[in-house]
UniProtKB/TrEMBL annotation:
Cofactor: pyridoxal 5'-phosphate
Keyword Acyltransferase: no
Keywords: Aminotransferase, Pyridoxal phosphate, Transferase
Name the UniProt record assigns to this protein: ornithine aminotransferase
One of the protein's GO biological processes: L-proline biosynthetic process
Database matches in NCBIfam families: Orn_aminotrans
InterPro entries per record: Aminotrans_3, Aminotrans_3_PPA_site, Class-III_PLP-dep_AT, Orn_aminotrans, PyrdxlP-dep_Trfase, PyrdxlP-dep_Trfase_major, PyrdxlP-dep_Trfase_small
The enzyme's E.C. designation: 2.6.1.13
Length: 406
């Protein structure tokens, strides 16, 4: 790096002051400044070491700076990084095949962010509703669920039930019906002849790791089939091994019409997302109707392919299932009058408190462990799937100390 572009080494306080002065104030991060990471561990600018139990909201399932993914990034960056979709590239077909292999759905459409992929799924559903189901143009309805989180674009916050995501951002996009989560009868009542799709998270991560009753996904899928409605699952946070299966919907015997993935699809190296669907759904798109300059770029595709290979070769999905089950069982032994519930699946755990969770997260940071509050009262624990039993034991002792001192 040339001298004029070298990053000066500042203190934590100086970095925070710069960020507060020049950045938008749309986040409320914990007050540490990370400069490097490896596996489940990160280091701040003061030289302190922390275990990362957030995984960038499940984007680094493969761990920080995984050497195989890093090598792929370097190799591909030296060849070609971006062609746009005006031309074909040699990496995209291989990613299509990899996504077909993990999903069973015949086609994929790569995008960049998870929010962009959710927008893509909604556009697909509406076009399918009009051209295949025969819904009058501009009348298609998508059913979504209370406490959902699919992103923060205008369309996605239009059906959010979280006031802080919506306040001041109207007018909103019409065409969405919001029903209670884990309530089959409410969904049944909401379906109309104009319903084109149901879009749901199989586990509501941002809402505090809310897990529906066993059989709920099966009932939702059956209702969709009965009414010729697309069953679309957002697996951006829950997919790619996080819950102990490749996808969270696989805990029940269902087959979605569309799957949305992102985050861990690139192991945290690069923004890559995708929508997967069969021919009947994906086939409604014609040239020029949808696209993204960076979507399907060769650098992103190469990185995503290796990120998926790492999940398979290192058996991270299986590790999530076995280590996560034991970790959850230990966390359920915690004793505190402030614990409302400890719930989870695989390596996705929420500890709900009856007091704000932020102070507990700050106390855990002081103990060398990083996690974040969600929906104010829930501590989310989602370490990288490369975590070892010894590291989980270490984490449990810190959680036990902080929770029992509340």
């Amino acid at each position: 790096m040339s001298a004029e572009h070298a990053t000066p080494h500042l203190s934590t306080r100086e970095y925070i002051e710069l960020e507060e002065r020049y950045g938008a104030h749309n986040y409320h991060p914990l007050d540490l400044v990370i400069e490097r990471g490896e596996g489940v561990w990160v280091h701040d600018v003061e030289g302190r070491k922390y275990m990362d139990c957030l995984s960038a909201y499940s984007a680094v399932n493969q761990g920080h700076c995984h050497p195989r993914i890093l090598e792929t990034l370097r190799e591909q960056a030296a060849k070609v990084t971006l062609t746009s979709r005006a031309f074909r590239n040699d990496q995209l077909p291989h990613l299509y095949k990899a996504l077909r292999d993990i999903s069973g759905l015949s086609r994929a459409l790569p995008m960049n962010s998870g929010a962009e992929a959710c927008e893509t799924a909604i556009k697909l559903a509406r076009k399918w509703g009009h051209t295949v189901k025969g819904i009058p143009e501009d009348r298609a309805e998508v059913i979504v669920f209370e406490n959902n989180f699919h992103g923060r674009t205008i369309s996605l916050i239009s059906f959010s039930s979280e006031p802080r995501y919506r306040k001041g951002f109207g007018p909103f996009t019409p065409g969405f019906t919001v029903v209670p989560y884990d309530d089959v009868e409410a969904l049944r009542r909401a379906i109309t002849p104009n319903t084109c799709a149901v879009l749901m998270e199989p586990i509501q991560a941002e809402a505090g790791v809310l897990i529906p009753k066993d059989g709920y996904l099966k009932q939702v899928a059956a209702l969709c089939r009965e009414n010729k409605v697309l069953f679309m699952v957002d697996e951006i946070q829950t997919g790619l091994g996080r819950t102990g299966k490749m996808f969270a919907f696989q805990h029940e015997d269902v087959r979605p019409d569309a799957i949305v993935v992102g985050k861990a699809l690139s192991g945290g190296f690069y923004p890559v997302s995708a929508v997967m669907a069969d021919d009947e759904v994906m086939g409604v798109l014609q040239p020029g109707e949808h696209g993204s300059t960076y979507g399907g770029n060769p650098l992103g595709c190469a990185v995503a392919r290796t990120a998926l290979d790492v999940l398979r070769d290192e058996k991270l999905v299986e590790r999530s299932a076995t280590l996560g089950q034991a970790f959850l069982a230990r966390l359920k032994t915690l004793q505190s009058p402030h614990i409302v519930e400890v719930r989870g699946r695989g390596m996705m755990v929420g500890i709900e408190l009856d007091i704000p969770a932020r102070p507990a997260c700050e106390a855990l940071m002081a103990e060398g462990m990083l996690c974040k509050e969600t929906h104010d009262f829930v501590i989310r624990l989602t370490p990288p799937l490369v975590v070892t039993q010894e590291e989980l034991d270490w984490a449990f002792e810190r959680v036990k100390k902080v929770i029992e001192a509340l």
